Records
---
Amino acid sequence: MIQGLLLAAGAGRRMGRPKALVPGWLRSSAEALLVGGCDRVTVVLGAGADEAARLIAAELPGVRWVLAQDWAEGMGASLRAGLAETTADATADAADAVLIHLVDLPDVGPDVVRRILAAGLAAGPAALVRATYGAVPGHPVLLGRDHWAGVIATATGDQGARAYLRGHDVLAVECGDLATGADVDRPRDQP
């Protein structure tokens, strides 16, 4: 079972609105996870959460969301909230791994997701796989269940899981032939 975890909590100050509310991004990012092979998707919301939750309910049936109460702290808070929600799922179909994706990567589609999942498939709960673009580390990142507690303990500020990943053997999977992996921070940067 692979859980897609879409981080979409930031205020998007340079964008002029929460990135979860940029037209089309929430939908296309969640669909990239689902079409790419994730069994289910949870979106982590923060800024603009009420409006984003309405969009999810209207456009993405079956996609769950969770609120990162301390979202203003940065990506680390969103990651902790999403992993805590996933960890709390004690059902028989609990996830073995989560694929972490960011809402502000509009050119990262299902083909990238499929490649990362295929690379980590055999590792199961021990999976630790990261997309690279021209050898530059990016997203999505596949975290097997064995790594969740360590990531939750170290995810701070806008660094997310960066410190944890630096301290572990991560399988880098080149995806530069499929996407740029560039995050979009300002309206003029949109493709």
Note: Helices lie at 25-36, 49-59, 75-87, 110-120, 148-154, 162-166.
---
Amino acid sequence: MNSRIKTALLLMVFIVAGCQSANQLTSSDNNASITAPELRDNFIRGMDISMLPEIEALGGKYYQNSIEQDLVSILKNHGVNSIRARLWVDPSSSNGEPFGGGNNDLVRSIELGIRAHQNDMSFLLDIHYSDFWADPKKQSKPQGWETLTFDNLKQKVYDYTTEIMQAHQAAGVMPDMVQIGNELNGGMLWPDGKSWGQDGKEFERLSQLLKAGIQAVHDNNSGKEIQIILHLAEAGNNQTFRWWFDEISAQGVDFEIIGMSYYPWWHGPIEQVKANMEDLIARYNKPVLLVETAFPFTHENGDSLANSYSSADPIEGYQISVSGQAQFLVDIMSLVNELPNNMGLGIYYWEPAWLPIQGATWSTNAGMEYSGDQWGLGNSWENQALFDFEGNALPSLEVFKQQE
């Protein structure tokens, strides 16, 4: 921990006692002085706020210095310069019941893109090619795509990607970057695009699906240079990244950026992330972008659903506190900023404003029936937000400010 303290900013944060609830932060916590790290001017200080339209629709509000403000304006005032939004094909059941988790359809993606551009932020569109959560453990085809032949599935990927690109164009919010798929360790559009455990031709099929989506972006970019991201989870796992990107490269898939997810309680020490990033840059001559990361500011729970990380124990030496959250962010941003040849593009904090309000659930009962993931209703992420349980901006948000 000493080395991290030496490289960190000065954090003058008075943290709530262990028994104090996170939604009872004192005024000294909220007014604490935090110095942002020194980063390149073009470093991406991003946020994935895909839950925001749903939270606002349910009455959620956000505050800076006890004054209610628009969430995106608060982020902009703290130095955030890019917004990421996930996109699902049709996150609702056959009888129209929403799946939850933000119900991130095309309308909401465009809404977030508009708000990003209104605040002079860049926009990253994360296309899941599923009706609900897509990650290494599940990559379900959208409803209505299940019976397509492989050739028709490729065409569907192209046509669907074309449709959403044209819709964003019509709304005047062409994305600056596009993810073709989300956390693709296991591939996409299972079983056709699964990356393992079949007949040896897994990456041949997966690559054709990826190429279809990429081609549709390029064919419908309105002359804008849109960068393509391919994104894996487990940022500290060099073996997985080499295996996957070696195979993709051998298939001639054309992309610009290697995307990563890094959650330190799941994905290991920060030193392994650094080593992996440096190796990938040297091996593929591609920049890296941390498109998802987060850290808890408390072990307390804001609703009835258990938190994704609920222990009070430190994570990789970082305390579960506002200052620990800030320290982690300073270290991970500094790490990415200092990668060779400016090939570390930046970070996106995942769901910093997911408040524990009634109805803002990771999944509805209809969503759980669709996905097969059976858990309780509610929010498991509120203790990793950059706002307390009532929507007050935490001092740790200060680390995103650009030094003058």
Note: The CA atoms of residues 128 and 181 lie 5 Å apart.
---
Amino acid sequence: MVAIKSDQLDFVINVMKDFKYPWFFAGGWSIDLGIGNITRDHEDIDICIFREHALEVLSYFSEWTIYVAIPGEGRLELCQTLKDLDPPRYGLHLHRDQDFIEILLTDRSGEDVLFRKNHRISMNYKQFVQEDSLGRKYVAPEWQLLFKAKEGRLKDEEDFKACLPFMRNEQRLWLSSALQKQYPSCSWIKQLTT
């Protein structure tokens, strides 16, 4: 598989080079890294960091302006303390001049990563973290697709269609099972099993 070249990815790698805790590319980039090809333009870049390292995130990005997304309200608030990140808050928008990174705080319990919307859905850490030939770590595409299944946006449908031919049987089985628990009427379930 040919490694993807991208200024967006290189920018984040450079920003995160001194961060001492695990972090992973997420969002649409996790799909493209999993496929090994850029399938569409990405208007921004998301990374995943475990919630247990939220304080370290605030410290590391102390020179940036940090906002937290308020779930269900479609608005951002300035994030100044760890208390501002109490669940169900999870999305951080970081700005520095023209630079922007979105961080998605993700929960885990032991070796299991927990799906934010339903903790009965989880994935083992070793399955959750994928790595390309250049050592760039990213969220398992099937995990990312579970989040995208709810949205119904054109880019999410495109990501699913792009990823489907590359998914191994165990990835299809995990996503199908998770969708049946979370979004049982999702049209992707049938496509995963045909």
Note: The chain has a mean pLDDT of 95.
---
Amino acid sequence: MWPFTKKKPLELPDFWWEYEAYFKEPLPDDIAENTFVVLDTETTGFSLTRDRMLCIGALKLKDNTIVVKDSFEVYIAQEHYDSESAEIHGILKKHKKDSLNELEALKRFLVYAKNHVLVGHHVMFDINMINAALKRNGLPKLKNKTLDTESLYIRTLLISTVVQKKERYSLDDLAKKYSISRKDRHTALGDAFITAIAFLRSVEKLKPKKIKDLLR
């Protein structure tokens, strides 16, 4: 039995502690020195309890450049299946691509993401889906800072002459606004690529000097 004066250490896998160790160092002050991980998830639906991730796609941005050769894409094997959502994202239950179990997919994503800022369109949906998967596997929540491209785009409108604004902006709205091809829309990696370009265009308009200006 552990003494009352000491707390039993959490029995978590080594890859979690390796991920957590990255957060001992603060993010670089200069935006150009930061790496951003732009992600998207394809899921069986919108419920955090009933639905599951089918795929995680991500790209890295460094110094205003998409590092295409360092992309990330995993397909997750699962039993939960929604034929209606499959019509949208094109991921079938018997997809020919190699798929991983949920824990291995999470492990690979944590290794990829490190302590970098996570960027997404309506990013908290993706973060919450990943956190729900982490919880199912007995792991804590993600520790990364996040940025939402919808929020960043709205910030660009506040400094523009645009009079009419909407309450919500979809990824298609941003793709149309920034003339971004939607050829691979509704695939995780394809949506991550569109989001990455939208992120770069919004940052270009906002002209933040430091990472803290972007994260505010």
Note: The chain has eight helices and six strands.
